[in-house]
Amino acid sequence: MIGADFADFLIPDAAVSVAELTDYIRFLLEQDEQLRQIWVIGEVSSANHHRSGLFFTLQDPDAGAAIKCVVWNSQLPKLMQMPIVGEQIIILGSMRVYPQRGEYQLSVWQALPAGVGLQALRYQQLRNRLEAEGLFAPERKRSLPIHPQIIAVITSPTAAAWGDIQKTLKHRYPGLHILFSPATVQGEQAPESIVNAIQRVERDGRAEVLILSRGGGAVEELACFNDERVVRAVANCSIPVITGIGHQRDESLVDLVADESVHTPTAAAERVVPALVDLYNQHRQRITNLQQVVYGELETAENQLQGLRNLLRRLRLDTQVQQELLALDWKRRRLMQATTSKLLHANQHLEMLRQKLATLNPKAVLERGYAVVRQENGIIVRNAADLEIGQELLVQLGQGEVKVKVIETKE
Prior knowledge:
By secondary structure, the chain is of the alpha/beta class.
């Protein structure tokens, strides 16, 4: 007997077939944009290698849900993580419906490790990408200033690292000016907080070097120092950056991009400024070295001088010089004698020439009573035949001249 409730249903003229229902379900699942490429995380509960591929079940232990998955043989070599029973993985795949069995499963393209393994994979992918950009290249690293006067520090104001840095800087370099830019260095807000702290230091513009630090912690607590935003902020910082994150087991990406990195906040403070006592000792050592060099040069010069003295004694150059001086004096005397003799002979010859000249002087002849007769044109008369009666002549005497007229000539 048919119950009363069933009588309320409207019975259609025709029902859909199983194939039609299955095709409709396949259309809904396989054409859904989200299900055509979907990431799913779960735990592998079973795995079975078949000649066509690897079949396994991915389950959610907490909710008790499960889904069947398959990786075809052509795709197996491309997996970064093989599905192993008991391990958590993240898979990328698409939904497939199998009408013959009335089942659906995920066709897997890629499988990645979940949890820590996923973090490590993301870390490595980001590291490879940043390294390809050249952010870790040694030639990008800048030298820290030798004697900075203003230092910026970024860390948590409540962290022990801040106290360690202050204590170390005050002990090593009293009077140093410290600019503190507080930041959250743990948790989801840490990356943005650190980036803002770096930007504050750059806007201030006074710091010569920047310390980015925290006091260690578990790997997951240091995730902010592998955040791309923080890494790029450090890489683009306008002043040199030294990191002292306090985690010796693993190197963070910030450590790789920083101009210099050390393992602890104290080591960062020690590295960024010299100790005054060390500077004093270095100064004293330089003075000692300078004195040794000066004394050494002086001793070398004295030894060379003494060697030259000894050489002079062996060569008896003083005696040679004395002999040369005597020879030079003798030559000087001979030169003076020869010069005096030549001068005497020259004076005598000059006197003889002077006397001859005086003898030949016409005035001297005139002084003795002779006279010179000239025509009016100045020509000296030498022959009486050249004169004419009445011709006027000039007669030069020893004292004065007279003008005469020819009245008679005799040959």
